[in-house]
Write a structure and sequence with these properties.
There is one protein chain. Helix 1 (3-27) packs parallel to helix 6. This protein has helices spanning 3-27, 29-58, 62-71, 77-95, 112-134, 138-162, 166-188, 202-212, 215-237, 239-250, 253-272, 279-312, 325-348, 351-376, 378-399, 410-429, 433-464. It contains 17 helices and no strands. Helix content is 82%, strand content 0%. The N and C termini lie close together (9 Å). With 465 residues, the protein is an all-alpha fold. The chain is globular, with a radius of gyration of 22 Å. The longest helix has 34 residues, at 279-312.
């Protein structure tokens, strides 16, 4: 299959499996904010954020090695999966005695055991799902996304609406849905065939560890740059403001949702095509389409963020959440671009350089959070995230120039970012409804006109290739 058709096919399959299911979570947002309130919504966010970091540490980020080495047909896939599962299980057993330490953190002290359950099932689900995708069962991976989300939402309705279990009910729903996912993947993809009871390739194990171990600090740095804002806000402004921040972040994360689906397909293509003589042109063409898509989705979200978020986030305290979304959306745009540049490190196995570039942004994020949140409140955290991800992106552009040469279309990027910034300023500071929607509409049309031709050209290329 032609490289562009393969990329488009995998993207569509993954989108079918994940976009609808993920959008259901947004449909449920009104339900969550109403049932949990700002405090509960903030507590859930802190639990998820802490668990995300712990999964990376406990599993040694072995999931990244599973997908990278699983895609490489020169390795025995049984060895790849067995090493991944064994590493995850051993990490979870070692982590168990340290769970009480979580209780020493004030705003997590009531949820230590829940966090362990979340980390336990999340670690194993991740290993199973990533391996399923790496061996080409993309459709099974997509179906799993739909079924897992459906189970999670059904359990949410039972535990939050029927029994009013609050934060505990939300987390238990996720844990049970992950268990369902693990069972489904084992049956559908017959993962039991890929587990060795005895012995694995020691050289492969060493290679997988050399690849993933530098990604532990990378994951920590991404976590710092991405979600440490929540902990700073909780400590400085209170957990209810964290709930507002999470609500404001929800719709900008739609861009990350679309980007994440594409990135899963793109990383597969980047690894498979890594030795192609025309790899630079391939990267340039794909990034050109990718950034146009990010701009269009971002402009559409900014156009409707006020009425949509006003409807979805209900309850006292959420009224002005939309004012905090624009800076977060701009941060997400640079997050998407940074992630794309990170695919170069994955394809070339330069995980140390991935760690180094992420560390720069993480350190800057911590400093700016400490300086700006007391002055600007929630928007201080949003601005910190924006600056950090912009720095990571530009550092990676410079760092990867010797690995893969790409034409990033800087003029196009500059004009689009200027238009998105204009829309953001309107949302944050304009109070007149007429002026508000006129300026947003004009900016959206300009973004559309600047980028639609790239999208149409990409479609023609896929159809004609």
């Amino acid at each position: 299959m032609d490289r562009y058709k393969r990329l488009a096919s995998n993207t569509l399959i993954l989108a079918f499996g994940q976009m609808g299911s993920k959008l259901l979570v947004y449909v449920m947002m009104r339900f969550y904010t109403e049932k949990l309130g700002p405090d509960g919504y903030g507590a859930v966010g802190n639990i998820v954020d802490a668990s995300t970091l712990l999964i990376a540490i406990v599993t040694l980020s072995i999931g990244e090695s599973i997908i990278r080495f699983g895609l490489d047909k020169s390795h025995d896939r049984k060895d790849v999966f067995t090493i991944g599962i064994r590493t995850s299980v051993c990490g979870l057993l070692i982590f168990l005695p340290f769970v009480p330490l979580i209780g020493q953190i004030d705003f997590l002290s009531d949820f230590a055991f829940l966090i362990y359950l979340y980390v336990f099932t999340g670690s194993l689900k991740s290993a199973c799902a990533l391996f399923t995708r790496s061996i080409g069962f993309v459709r099974i991976y997509a179906v799993d996304g739909i079924l897992t989300t459906a189970v999670n939402i059904i359990l949410n309705l039972v535990f939050l609406a029927a029994f009013d279990f609050g934060v505990v009910g939300y987390v238990v729903s996720v844990v049970l849905a992950d268990l369902f996912s693990i069972l489904f993947l084992f049956m559908a993809a017959k993962l039991n065939r890929y587990i060795k009871l005895f012995g694995v390739d020691k050289r492969l194990k060493s290679s997988m560890y050399r690849f993933c171990l530098p990604l532990i600090p990378t994951s920590i740095m991404w976590w710092v740059a991405n979600v440490s804002d929540s902990f700073f806000i909780t400590a400085m402004l209170g957990v209810s403001m964290t709930g507002v921040y999470k609500a404001a972040y929800k719709f900008p994360n739609l861009v990350m949702l679309a980007s994440g689906i594409f990135s899963q397909a793109w990383n597969m293509s980047a690894v498979v095509e890594k030795d192609s003589l025309t790899i630079s042109k391939f990267y340039t063409n794909v990034f050109n389409f990718f950034q146009s898509t990010v701009y269009l989705i971002s402009a559409a979200i900014l156009l409707v963020i006020r009425p949509v978020l006003g409807f979805m986030a209900v309850g006292e305290g959420f009224e002005n959440a939309f004012r905090y979304s624009p800076l977060l959306l701009l941060a997400v745009v640079f997050t998407c671009f940074s992630t794309f540049m990170g695919s170069v490190y994955i394809a070339t196995k330069k995980s140390v350089r991935s760690m180094t570039t992420a560390s720069i942004g993480a350190g800057l994020n911590l400093l700016l959070n400490w300086l700006l949140i007391p002055i600007m409140g929630i928007n201080g955290a949003a601005l910190s995230t924006l600056i950090s991800y912009a720095v990571i992106f530009f550092v990676r552009v410079y760092d990867t120039r010797n690995l893969v040469h790409m034409d990033l279309k800087p003029y196009k990027m500059g004009i689009n970012m200027l238009l998105l910034t204009t829309m953001s300023m309107v949302i944050m500071f304009v109070n007149s409804d007429t002026v508000y929607y006129v300026l947003l509409s004009i900016s959206f049309v300009l973004v559309f006109l600047l980028n639609i031709q790239t999208g149409l050209s990409a479609v023609r290329q896929v159809r004609g290739s």
